[in-house]
Amino acid sequence: MIAAEYRSIRYPHQNNGTGAAGDPGFVTVIGGYGQTDVPAFIAKDTMLEGRFGFKVAEPRIYVAAGYLHRETNYGYPKQSGVGFGLEKLPDLDRPFSLYGSVYDFPAVNGDFAYPQDTFTCPIMTPTSPCLAGSLYETTAKLTDRVLTYRLGVSIMLLGARDPFGFFLDGGYLGDSIHAKALGPGNASHAGAYLGLGVKL
User: What is the pTM of this model?
Assistant: First the structure.
C-alpha cells in the first residue's frame, strides 16, 4: 500500500477586543512562559501525510509506516516526524465497504526561533542589548505527539465488478495533538466528510 493525504483546515481565532486576560484573543505563547493578545484572524493548519504498508490480513488490512508534515500560519515552525499505524482499505469490488485508519506520530517536531518580545528580551535598546541568558535569537525543538484517525464507508454507484467505477465516499476524520516540548497546549481537529471517488 502506498498512500498520501493532504488536509487544509481553516477556523477563526476570536478576539473580543477587551485587551484583558480571559478574552479568547489571549493565547499562551510557545514555551508556555506567558500570554499575549492576538488580534482576530483566520487560522490555517495544513498536514501532509504519506504512508507505506504491507498487508497482514484480509480484507485489505495493512500495517504501515507514515510520515507527517505540519504547517500553520500563526508562527509555529514547520514540523515533521515519522510514525506507525494500522489501516483498512475500502473494498471497491463490493457494493458496500467500511474502511478506516489510525496512526501515531510520537515526535513531530521543528526548530522554533524565539522572536524579540517582552518575554524573551525584556530590556533592549540600541545601547542595551538583551541580557545574558535571554531566549531571543536562540532556537529549540517544538515537539508534539500527533494521532490521526479516520472511519469511512464507500458505496459503489457504478462498476463494482469492473476495473473502472464511481463510488460515494463519506465518514469522519480527525487528529489529536498532544504538546510535548515547548507546546503551549493540546489541540484537535475533527469533522465529517462526503465526496465522490473514482476507481481506476
Answer: 0.86
